[in-house]
Structures are given as C-alpha cells and as structure tokens.
Amino acid sequence: MPSDGHIWILGATGYVGRALSVAAMKEYPPARLITFGHRKMDARLMEESNHFVCPLNEISEGLLERYPPKKIFHCARMAGSSDRKRHTAAQKGAAANERLIQMLRKMKDSPVLIYCSGSLMYGPQTSEANEQTPLKPIGYARAYLQAEEPFLNARNERHLDARMARPAWILGPGSWFHAFFLDPAKKTGKVPYYGSGEQLMSVLSLKSCAEQLLRVADKGAPFSDQNLVCYAPLTQRDFSQILADILGLPTIRVPESALLKRHGKTVTEALCTSIPIGTLNDDWRTEWSREVSGLRTDLLELIHFDPFLRRS
Q1: Is residue 186 located within the same domain as residue 110?
Q2: pTM (2 decimals)?
Q3: How crowded is residue 307: how many other Cβ atoms within 10 Å of its Cβ?
Q4: What secondary structure letter does DSSP report for 187?
Q5: Considering Cα of 251, then 254, then 259, then 260, what sign does the dihedral take?
Q6: Residues 192 and 133 occupy one common structural domain
Q7: N or C: where does the chain have the smaller number of CB atoms within 10 Å of the terminal CB?
Q8: CATH number at residue 275
Q9: pLDDT digits (tens, 9 = 90+) for 181-217
Q10: What is the spatial distance between Cα 111 and Cα 307, in angstroms, rounded to a whole number?
Q11: Residues near 69 by Cβ (< 8 Å), separated by ≥ 6?
C-alpha cells in the first residue's frame, strides 16, 4: 500500500461523481484511486482506477482493510423521482451511511470524508449563506437532509472528520439547466425565468465543482463545511437574459402558480427561492471566484454541440 493512502470515490458513475473521478484521475495513479459505482458500467473507471460495482450499503470491511482510505469523497446520495421516493431513498441512504460510519470507526487511522451536499440545505436567504448559516432545508433538501444526519452527528461527536461540501447550482449537461431553461427555450423559442425572477441564484460549472471537491480534503477546515462557489449571486432573470442573449431569443416569465401546477411544491421551491451562497474561507474565495462575465463562456460550452442551437 502507498504510504499516503488510498482515495475513495463513492457514486463514481453519477453526475458529480463521474466528473470528480475524471478530475481525480489527473492527480492520482490508478493504484491509489478506488471508485465505486452502481448499475452503470464505465470503461474508463475500470481502466484508470480500482473500480467496484456495488451499492453503498454493500461496501465491505474487507475492502477497507485491503484499500484503507485516506480520503473518501461521497457522491452516492440516493435519489428519487417523487417526494415519497426521495424520502424512502433518504431513509436507505441514512442507514447505509450509518453502516459506513461504524466500519470507519474501527479503523486505526480514520479518513477525512467529504460529502457532496447542496445549497438548498440553507433555505431562503436575504444575504449570502456561509458555512455558519443554520440549515433550513427546502425542496429536495428536506428529504436528503436525513441521509446527511449520520455524518453531521458523527462530526459533532468528533468520531469522524466529515466535511459537508455545499455547491451552488451545478451547471452541467442535463440536470436542471436543460430541464427548466434550455429545453423550454428549444420548444417555445423563449427562455423562461420563474416566479418574480428577482430570486438570487448561485451557479458554478460541473468541472469547477469537481475540482473544488478535491480541494476540500486538503484546504477545507477539519470537522466543518465548505461552500463551493464561483460567480457572485445573480437574479434568475439575469441568468435567463444571459442565456437568451446567447441564443438570440427573448425571455418569458413563468408565474409561480403555473410552475406549481405543472411541477408541484418541491420543484417550485427549488426554482423560486432566493439562496445566494458565499464562503467565509478567504483563500477559497480568492482562488475560485470568477467574474460573472465568465458565465457566458460556461453556457456557450454547454450548448455548443446542440444541433438545434448550432450557429452557421
């Protein structure tokens, strides 16, 4: 075993976990990188890491003994497609996480664990939420907090150096960006914004999210949280206007009542609540903050290969 230990990535075939794994491959040799996926096969992960296909709740103590981790990146949050299914997934996730904690407590040298959470945990804010802002989860986060609680409790009791990484809205292929902004623009010829449009949102690219996650283990404070930030908060209407300018389309306001009728309370809360986030970590802010003008570049990269939007 290398003297500096192994790097584990849980949920390595998922949305954030896959991007994190690609970033980690640039820093760690395959022998040190241990990745876990579920239901998906990934040739690159199998070639460039020690890759295991198994669910979170089936990771064995034998693997901990064979590949003792120095750092664990947890991107294996169990998801659901409805409120009921999200709560069920959160219960299963909480049980799996508690099981993992109990195994880690048996290790001679406990690793640092970085859990990829989200900014919805902060709930509505009138100013930038930082790492000391009390949690008031809304939307999807109401269910998902249950899965985080075992790590929060273990951290409070100093049983495990668990660090919650709370990224802003992650801007990448698929996800919320396509479902609620790009795809509607393709269908209607207008870029939507929701509710008043004055709600503040914080966004960062998927690539930046992955790179920052890697740094939380080395530059984050022990037994604490770290917000993952990029651009200064902007209103959703301004976000939509930037996208509209790129596409050469107008914007359109979608009333909160229409969003509620079509998608329900959980989605409406997520899209219509003002949750600007910042960080108390001055070094982090200096290293990762970018001018909002860079958001246009990120958006251009996302839509560049979409045939509907390709310019001549």
Answers
A1: no
A2: 0.93
A3: 5
A4: H
A5: positive
A6: no
A7: C
A8: 3.90.25
A9: 999 999 999 999 999 999 999 999 999 999 999 999 9
A10: 45
A11: 5, 6, 7, 8, 34, 111
